Amino acid sequence: MGDVAADADQGTTSGQPASWQSPMLATLIDPGPWLARGHGDWIYQRKLDGLRCVAVRNGDDVELWSRNRKSFTARFPEIAGALADLSVDNFTVDGELVAFDGNDYLGFGALQEHGSKVGVVYGVFDVLHASGRDTRGWAQSERRRLLDSLVVPCAYLHPVEALSGDPAALLSSGCAHLWEGLVAKRPDGIYVAGRSTDWCKLKCTASQELVMGGW
């Protein structure tokens, strides 16, 4: 984390406690025309189907918040415990609480069975604050490097993978595996509250060719 901080833009406040921040939201787009214009340098991740969650840690105190700042801490104590075990004790991270069966992420409805039939993991995909420094003004690519050094994968914490390859092929493969879609992120974009075109949702849609006749 020290190397990342030294390399990244230092024009941000430091020495501040971590706190809840209004999350950044992706803009839904038509993937065909968008991909045709060429966005191969963007960062692509699987779009998860769960509950958006902003997690805040200050020392031993860990809080989980929804995108509307409703507390998830009591509902998902195992996630809070995993975040409390990380070596860095001051951060705000953004991600998605997702049902997980041990092999793959499940849909939103499976979260209702949390604690009985399926487990839950926190898919972390961004860092808003770390070690007293506000990182929202850093480029997406720098925040990604920081995320990889901050969040250690475990049974309850999964850093969301940055996918490599042709984006059209990634979307096609994801849809074939019944993913909800992809999220594309501008590598030099900063983190801003609210909806932004620096994050774009490329959703999979179910379709089938039909021949229809009538009389």
Structure, described:
There is one protein chain. This protein has about 220 residues and is of the alpha+beta class. It has 5 helices and 11 strands; from the N terminus they run H-E-H-E-E-E-H-E-E-E-H-E-E-H-E-E. The strands form 2 sheets. Strands 3, 4, 5, 6, 7 and 8 form a 6-stranded mixed sheet that branches. The chain is globular.
The helix-strand sequence is: HEHEEEHEEEHEEHEE
Mean of residue pLDDT values: 90
Distance from first to last alpha carbon: 69 Å
Q: Spans of 5+ residues with little confidence (pLDDT < 50)?
A: 7-12
Strand content: 25-35%
Our Rg estimate from Cα atoms comes to: 18 Å
Helix content: 10-25%
Specify the biggest β-sheet. Answer: 6 strands, mixed
- Which overall shape is indicated by the principal axes computed on the Cα atoms? globular
Structural class: alpha+beta
Counted beta strands: 11
Instruction: Please work out how many helical segments DSSP would assign.
Output: 5
Write the layout of secondary structure elements.
Layout: H1 2-7, E1 24-28, H2 31-36, E2 43-46, E3 51-58, E4 61-65, H3 77-84, E5 90-100, E6 119-130, E7 133-134, H4 140-150, E8 157-159, E9 162-163, H5 167-176, E10 181-185, E11 194-203
Parallel strand pairs: 1-11, 6-8
Antiparallel strand pairs: 2-9, 2-10, 3-4, 3-5, 5-6, 6-7, 10-11
How would you summarize what this structure contains?
With 215 residues, the chain is α+β, with helices and mostly antiparallel strands. It has helices at 2-7, 31-36, 77-84, 140-150, 167-176, and strands at residues 24-28, 43-46, 51-58, 61-65, 90-100, 119-130, 133-134, 157-159, 162-163, 181-185, 194-203.
